[in-house]
Structures are given as structure tokens and as C-alpha cells.
């Protein structure tokens, strides 16, 4: 199958490589030259622009940072000069970026008017899951469009959930990431407290992992350096899921909570803490670096 892949960052790069390894013909594009160069060394064929990438594509996959990038790409600045105008009728667009549900619905509506199918399919599982092809997809769209997307999603993920109609995948994703943001801060506090008391971080991590505090961060993404060899914490908090991306997701969750008059006090506090952490010079580090806020210095 010919697939256009737009956005070759920490997640999109390895996802596109998995589709390539599965035998699909990928035409990839990213605005960043570094991302394109890296993708080329992994064997991907690079297009000269997003418009070029979608020529002849049966499926278009996008993996961009935030709502404004997705809207600008597909709808263009004035809503007239976007990529949708260059995508053939009958094509399926799979947007895996984490963005506002309302933006997914806006793009889906414009796509439908142009005879193009659209699903939102944000992911969970981190860069490790993207590389291993074990991501969890949370899909919003029709049954028929999900079944069309399934053979493509299966090459990049291990779990595919149908959350509901377009936008529902995004709602599930922000609920999950609000919980993740909160549990990473909680895990950081517990790790820092134990280590301040002289406990060995690996021993403490293993005790909590197998006790009632066990969670995903303790399983595979410990914020304390040296506990998990492949976690960003053991690599100077490089790569992974950026603090500012977590901040964006917590912002989406709070906007939604306000609209729904929902009570999310810990989600609100987590957003405020990641905002302070970002301003403190950690915006580009992995979000698990939030442990630095609660760690004893020196
Ligand atoms: P990233 O910043 O590493 O990559 C995004 C890429 O999109 C960049 O290379 C950028 O140059 C490119 N881009 C932006 N606008 C573009 C355009 N118009 N055309 C082509 N390329 C464009 O981000 P990431 O970590 O890969 O995350 C991507 C999305 O996945 C985000 O919405 C994020 O919230 C979500 N996500 C990330 C993780 C993670 O662990 N990193 C996990 C789950 C979900």
C-alpha cells in the first residue's frame, strides 16, 4: 500500500519505519531537515513537501505536535490552501497527533466535504512503544474507517481501541495523559523521599512496583536515573516525551474540564507544576525530569 507519512519526530519517525519494514511504500515528509536526514538513514523515501508526499497515497498518516500544526497542515491558513486540496477523493487520513477533539472534528468535517475519510488515532506507549511497534491506538471515527485503518495501525501498535466517533480518541487520550502527568509527579515524590532517606533507588522502585503503588512509571519509565537503563532519566532526560508536550496535554484536559464543569483538581495542579518546570529551563527535556522539582540538590 502507498502511504504518505507527515511528521517524523520522536514518534512519527519510528512509526513510519515500522510501516516501511512491513512492506508498505512510504513517502515521508517533515519540515525539519534533521528529522528527514534521520529518516533517510533508516531507509525511508523522502518527499520534497507534504503535497508531494500525498501524491498517489491511499492512506495519509500525520504525527504532529499540536492542534495548530494539524489545522494548518490540512486546512491551511485561510482554510482554503491546506493539504486536503491535494489529497485524492477516497483517501483515508489517520491523524495520530494528540490534539483538541474539536480540531479533529473540524478537520474531519472539511475532509468529509472533500470526499476524504478521517479518523483521529492518538497513541500511548512512548518512544519505546513507537520503536517496538507496540503502541496503543485510541481511535475516533466510524466502524468502516477504523476497519480500513486497522491493517496500517496493526503494523505500528499492539492494541487498537475504538473510543467512539471522531474526536473520541482524543478525549480518551487526554484522560490517560492527565493521569500519566499526575502519576509521574507522585512517583517522583515517592522516589525522592525514599532516596533522601538513604534507600537504594532500584530497591525502592522494585518494592513499590510490586506493591499497591505500582504504576507504568515504576514498570518502565522510572524518573530516577539508573533504574531503567532505556528510560529517558538514564539518558540525561533526552528524547522521550517532552515536558512541553505533557504541558500541552494537561492544558487540553483542563480546557475540556472547564467546558464540562468537571472537577479535576490534581490535573490542574499537575498542569501548574509542569508549567513551572518548563519555565525553569526544562521545556525540551523528557517530562519525567519533573523529579528535579522535588529532588534534594547536591
Ligand atoms: P516531535 O516534536 O518529536 O515531532 C513532531 C514533528 O512534526 C517534528 O519533527 C516537526 O518538525 C514536525 N512537523 C511540525 N509541523 C509539520 C508540518 N506542517 N509538516 C511536516 N512536519 C511537521 O513530537 P513527538 O514526540 O513525535 O510527538 C508527536 C505527537 O505525538 C504529539 O502530539 C505528542 O503529544 C504525541 N505523543 C508523543 C509521545 C512521546 O512519547 N513523544 C507519546 C504519545 C503521544
Automatic annotation (TrEMBL):
The keyword Cell wall biogenesis/degradation does not apply. It catalyses: 3-hydroxy-2-methylpropanoate + NAD(+) = 2-methyl-3-oxopropanoate + NADH + H(+). Pathway: Amino-acid degradation; L-valine degradation. The gene is mmsB. One of its GO terms (biological process) is L-valine catabolic process. Gene3D superfamilies: N-(1-d-carboxylethyl)-l-norvaline Dehydrogenase, domain 2, NAD(P)-binding Rossmann-like Domain. Pfam families: NAD_binding_11, NAD_binding_2. InterPro entries: 3-OH-isobutyrate_DH-rel_CS (IPR002204), 6-PGluconate_DH-like_C_sf (IPR008927), 6PGD_dom2 (IPR013328), 6PGDH_NADP-bd (IPR006115), HIBADH (IPR011548), HIBADH-like_NADP-bd (IPR029154), HIBADH-related (IPR015815), NAD(P)-bd_dom_sf (IPR036291). Residues 2-164 form the 6-phosphogluconate dehydrogenase NADP-binding domain. The keyword Nuclease does not apply. Its EC number is 1.1.1.31. Keywords: Branched-chain amino acid catabolism, NAD, Oxidoreductase. One of its GO terms (molecular function) is 3-hydroxyisobutyrate dehydrogenase activity. Residues 167-293 form the 3-hydroxyisobutyrate dehydrogenase-like NAD-binding domain. This is 3-hydroxyisobutyrate dehydrogenase. It is an enzyme of class 1 (oxidoreductase). The active site is at residue 173. Belongs to the HIBADH-related family.
Amino acid at each position: 500500500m502507498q502511504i504518505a507519512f507527515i511528521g517524523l519526530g520522536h514518534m512519527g519517525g519510528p512509526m513510519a519505519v515500522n510501516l516501511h519494514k512491513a512492506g508498505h511504500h512510504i513517502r515521508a515528509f517533515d519540515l525539519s531537515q534533521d528529522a528527514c536526514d534521520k529518516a533517510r538513514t533508516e531507509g525511508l523515501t523522502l518527499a520534497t513537501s507534504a503535497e508531494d508526499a500525498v501524491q498517489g497515497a491511499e492512506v495519509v498518516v500525520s504525527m504532529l505536535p499540536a492542534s495548530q500544526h494539524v489545522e494548518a497542515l490540512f486546512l491551511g491558513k485561510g482554510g482554503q490552501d491546506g493539504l486536503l486540496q491535494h489529497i485524492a477523493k477516497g483517501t483515508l487520513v489517520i491523524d495520530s497527533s494528540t490534539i483538541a477533539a474539536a480540531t479533529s472534528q473540524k478537520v474531519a468535517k472539511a475532509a468529509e466535504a472533500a470526499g476524504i475519510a478521517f479518523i483521529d488515532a492518538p497513541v500511548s506507549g512512548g518512544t519505546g512503544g513507537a520503536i517496538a511497534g507496540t503502541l496503543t491506538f485510541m481511535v475516533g471515527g466510524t466502524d468502516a474507517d477504523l476497519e480500513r485503518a486497522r491493517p496500517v495501525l496493526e503494523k505500528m501498535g499492539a492494541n487498537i481501541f475504538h473510543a467512539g466517533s471522531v474526536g473520541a480518541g482524543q478525549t480518551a487520550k487526554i484522560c490517560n495523559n492527565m493521569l500519566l502527568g499526575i502519576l509521574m509527579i507522585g512517583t517522583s515524590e515517592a522516589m525522592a523521599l525514599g532516596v533522601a532517606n538513604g534507600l537504594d533507588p532500584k530497591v525502592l522502585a522494585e518494592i513499590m512496583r510490586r506493591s499497591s503503588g505500582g504504576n507504568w512509571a515504576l514498570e518502565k519509565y522510572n524518573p530516577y536515573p539508573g533504574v531503567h537503563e532505556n528510560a529517558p532519566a538514564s539518558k540525561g532526560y533526552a528524547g522521550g516525551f517532552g515536558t512541553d508536550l505533557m504541558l500541552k496535554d494537561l492544558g487540553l484536559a483542563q480546557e475540556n474540564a472547564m467546558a464540562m464543569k468537571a472537577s479535576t483538581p490534581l490535573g490542574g495542579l499537575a498542569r501548574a507544576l509542569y508549567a513551572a518546570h518548563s519555565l525553569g529551563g526544562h521545556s525540551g527535556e523528557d517530562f519525567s525530569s519533573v523529579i528535579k522539582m522535588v529532588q534534594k540538590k547536591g
